[in-house]
Amino acid sequence: MTEQELYKSCTLCPRKCSIDRTVTKGYCNEKSELHVSRAALHMWEEPCISGEHGSGTVFFSGCNMGCVFCQNKEISRGEVGKIIPTERLVEIFFELQEKGANNINLVTGDMFIPTIKTAIERAKSRNIKIPFLLNTSSYIEVDTLKMLDGLIDIYLPDFKYIREQDAVRYSKAKGYVDVAKAAIDEMIRQHPNCEFGSDNGEENLIKKGVVVRHLLMPGMLIQAKMIVRYLYDKYGDNIFISLMNQYTPNGQLQEYPEIDRKVSERDYKSLVEYAASIGVVNGYMQVGETAKESFIPSFDCSGV
Predict the structure, then answer these.
(1) Which residues bind [4Fe-4S] cluster (predicted)?
(2) Does 194 belong to an annotated binding site?
(3) 191, 155 in Cβ contact below 8 A?
């Protein structure tokens, strides 16, 4: 199928809304046109991704999740951003490379995968030098990920839930657990091991592989430990596991009082210690005060 045909009855994500996105917005709040809210160097990803020079992040507008606690609600609802042609996205890739980016980090671009595929192919045909990274919620179809085989060098998926009831209550994402497991399986099929190298005078930058993130949420320590156990039992040291404590209530959680607070230091310490106790070595943890608004970038169309 052609790029436009894939949008005409959209089934790129598990919602399979089958809407003609060349005409109407899908569940993701986006039509088929690329909608981008920011393109800039980002210093706050995992050390192997940002390094000292930064990750070249491209934030796409829209989202196929429905997280009640979303920190990036301006863009997830498609309220801000700029419509750009495919060729402009290619130019952005090269501009980020010229600024010293260690990689091109495609943030929440799941609903634009056919167009992103075209843009990456064009950039690679013009000998772009840095890796491409897909930063995703993991609520994505395996067939959609297969479009990117050989194009995406690094996958940075979330694994948000391993309990279906929580996925439905907090993200309105029916089937999330099975979908995310299958999606991560496909990512690791494409990149069964992590490879590191040097660039920009830096060492220990990831060049290929999978880094799975989990954001610890209030009252969900047991679930977080279940996720770590699942990932480590299944993939061992072939992946990196990134444990995050930056959950920030968005001020709109009156109907969800159980998650209307920050994560306790005690719970996060318990999660990190648990990961270490079962043998996780390839991992990242967050230190300091990360759960605050200053860690959320301004979606002002910079670099777009």
Answers:
(1) 63, 67, 70
(2) no
(3) yes
Percentage of the chain lying above the pLDDT 90 cut: 87
17 among the known binding-site residues?
no
What are the residues facing 34 on neighbouring strands?
84
| Tally of structural domains, the chain | 1
131 occurs within a structural domain: yes
Is the model's pLDDT at 265 over the cut of 60?
A: yes
Of 177, 180, 123, whose CA–CA distance to 152 is shortest? 123
CATH of the domain at 138: 3.20.20.70
223 within some domain: no
301 assigned ligand-binding residue: no
pLDDT of residue 112: 98
Report if residue 91 sits inside a domain: yes
Separation CA 201–CA 166 (nearest Å): 43
| Residue 304 contacts residue 85 (beta carbons within 8 Å) | no
Tokens of 209: 């592989």
Positions of E strands within the chain:
34-42, 55-60, 82-84, 104-107, 132-136, 154-157, 195-199, 202-215, 240-244, 283-285
Euclidean distance between CA atoms 78 and 31, whole angstroms: 10
Parent domain of 160: 3-23+33-209
